[in-house]
């Protein structure tokens, strides 16, 4: 069977490596910059894919694929799919996504595809499937990118896998956990080494690192997955017992307390302290890895503040880091300007929401 996963655009290669390294599938196509990775896997691995892929947003089983120019093509491709696996008592909904120039909208795709599902099901099962747009039992994804049309069964649900459900404290600007996990993978960090986030906010990067090291599945804190309607995928797992050397520095006391609250909730030993990223060389003699999501100066008045922060932080980091620094920021020119003074850098463009950011790997 062929699946695709959605990913924050720019981090597709990280997700592909995770799929391969965890032996959950054979990658067959990476759509760089498009937020899609295609791979072969087994139906019975659907629970594992949802539980253990930490860098992806969604797992979709492909049901049909074809070239589309008109809505008639949409109807034809969808109607040819056998939907008889759906229980006649269940409801369904179409979720459409369209990229490119077309003379119809995503709403049109949903309408036509929905009619095709109903007609196909009536032909095979003799009954009409119910539509429920708010809380469907089954979600059918219809993705049209230029003329490439993919119909798939959403095994994750309307809430993507970034909804981990362990953040009992809500930071005003939290980092997407799938990005946090991707940064950890990019860094090459392992649990034997020390890890510092000097601008840690509520600690997402550190918590994701710890869960990767302990092999904690997403289902430990989240129980709602779409596939549970058609697969008995009870969450059985055994975490690894590993010693962690995780450190977080945060400027604001309320965020330190919030991060400590999360650490207690997930039972993870992370050492948090209130402090400034510019002074980490005063707090630590040496650290193996630094991974962080520094603030962005989106308002012009903050540009000089951001420049001073980045300059001082990178200088301090260069004095204590033994392996590398990994950071994601929208202030790409400022970060690169000062990172070059102390490190050899690699960089990757990442579209985070509607913002173009860049991940820097500094050795």
TrEMBL record:
Q: One MF term from GO for this chain? A: tRNA (guanine) methyltransferase activity
| UniProt cross-references to CDD domains, sorted A to Z | THUMP_AdoMetMT
Q: Could you tell me which residue ranges the THUMP domain spans? A: 45-155
Q: Name one GO biological process term.
A: tRNA methylation
Keyword Electron transport in annotation: no
Q: How is this protein annotated for GO cellular component?
A: cytoplasm
The primary site where this protein sits is: cytoplasm
Which keywords describe this protein according to UniProt? Methyltransferase, RNA-binding, S-adenosyl-L-methionine, Transferase, tRNA processing
Q: What is this protein called?
A: Class I SAM-dependent RNA methyltransferase
Q: Which organism is it from?
A: Geoglobus ahangari
């Amino acid at each position: 069977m062929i699946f695709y996963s959605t990913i924050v655009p720019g981090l597709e290669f990280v997700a592909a490596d995770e799929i391969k390294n965890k032996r959950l599938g054979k990658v067959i196509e990476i759509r760089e910059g498009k937020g899609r990775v295609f791979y072969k896997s087994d139906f019975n691995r659907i629970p594992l894919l949802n539980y253990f892929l930490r860098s992806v947003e969604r797992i979709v089983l492909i049901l049909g694929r074809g070239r589309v120019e008109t809505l008639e093509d949409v109807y034809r491709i969808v109607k040819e799919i056998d939907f008889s696996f759906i229980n006649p008592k269940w409801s369904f909904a179409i979720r459409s996504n369209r990229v490119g120039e077309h003379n119809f909208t995503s709403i049109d795709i949903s309408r036509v595809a929905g009619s095709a599902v109903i007609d196909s099901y009536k032909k095979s099962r003799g009954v009409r499937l119910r539509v429920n747009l708010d809380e469907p039992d089954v979600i059918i994804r219809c993705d049209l990118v230029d003329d490439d049309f993919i119909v798939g069964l959403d095994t994750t649900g309307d809430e993507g896998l970034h909804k981990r459900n362990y953040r009992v404290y809500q930071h005003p600007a939290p980092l997407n956990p799938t990005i946090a996990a991707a940064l950890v993978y990019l860094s090459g960090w392992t649990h034997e080494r020390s890890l510092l986030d000097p601008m840690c906010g509520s600690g997402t990067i550190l918590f994701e690192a710890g869960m990767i090291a302990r092999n904690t599945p997403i289902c430990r804190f989240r129980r709602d997955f779409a596939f549970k309607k058609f697969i008995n995928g009870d969450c059985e797992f055994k975490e690894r017992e590993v010693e962690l050397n995780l450190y977080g520095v945060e400027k604001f006391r309320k965020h330190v307390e919030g991060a400590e609250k999360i650490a207690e909730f997930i039972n993870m030993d992370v050492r948090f302290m209130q402090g400034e990223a510019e002074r980490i060389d005063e707090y630590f003699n040496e650290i193996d890895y630094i991974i962080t999501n520094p603030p962005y100066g989106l308002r012009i008045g903050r540009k000089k503040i951001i420049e001073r922060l980045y300059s001082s932080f990178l200088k301090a980091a260069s004095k204590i880091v033994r392996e590398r620094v990994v950071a994601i920021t929208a202030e790409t020119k400022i970060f690169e300007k000062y990172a070059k003074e102390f490190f050899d850098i690699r960089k990757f463009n990442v579209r985070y929401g509607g913002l173009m950011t860049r991940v820097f790997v500094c050795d």
